[in-house]
Amino acid sequence: MLNLNSVMIGTKQIKVLAAFYEKVLGKPADMADEEYGFFGWQVGSSYLSVLDHSEMVGHTKDPGRVMINFETPQVKEEFERIKALGGVVIKAPYEMEGGWIATLADPDGNYFQLVSPMEQ
Predict the structure, then answer these.
(1) Rounded to an integer, what distance in angstroms lies between the CA atom of residue 103 and that of residue 60?
(2) Where among 55, 71, 97 does a domain terminate?
(3) pTM greater than 0.85
(4) Considering Cα of 17, then 20, then 25, then 31, what sign does the dihedral take?
């Protein structure tokens, strides 16, 4: 069985994305190397990282292709908090099969979702 270790987001706006995700996650990066352009946060059992990538320029061209889902029982409240931090609203919170989902975008245009915990 594979274990998801991390999700890395390449960008040319490393400081902008690092500052944004620091506010979204409510803590400074757990790993940071400004010389190499890398910031990473432990999020649950995985890492979310942003890194300076020479091939990434401007906004993402296909933002819904890969989405990061952040699980929270307070989807509506977290949606409002992140929207106030500068998250771009893609889809306001809506109910789906008893759970809630909201979609936002980061400063590079990458989509991420807030989702209710799934029942085990």
Answers:
(1) 16
(2) 55
(3) yes
(4) positive
Is 65 found in the same domain as 48?
A: no
- Please tell me the distance from the alpha carbon of residue 26 to that of residue 19, in angstroms, as a whole number: 10
pLDDT in tens, 41-67: 999 999 999 998 877 777 778 888 889
The span from the CA of 35 to the CA of 60, in Å, is: 24
Both 9 and 63 in one domain: the answer is no
| Per-residue tokens: 100 | 């809630």
Look at residues 106, 115, 12 and name the one whose alpha carbon lies nearest to residue 57: 12
Q: Which domain holds residue 30?
A: 1-55
Question: What pLDDT is recorded for position 7?
Answer: 94
Which pLDDT score is estimated for 3?
A: 85
CA atoms within 13 Å, Cβ hemisphere of 27: 9
CATH classification at residue 91: 3.10.180.10
Say yes or no to pLDDT of 119 above 70.
Answer: yes
If one counts the domains in the chain, the total is 2
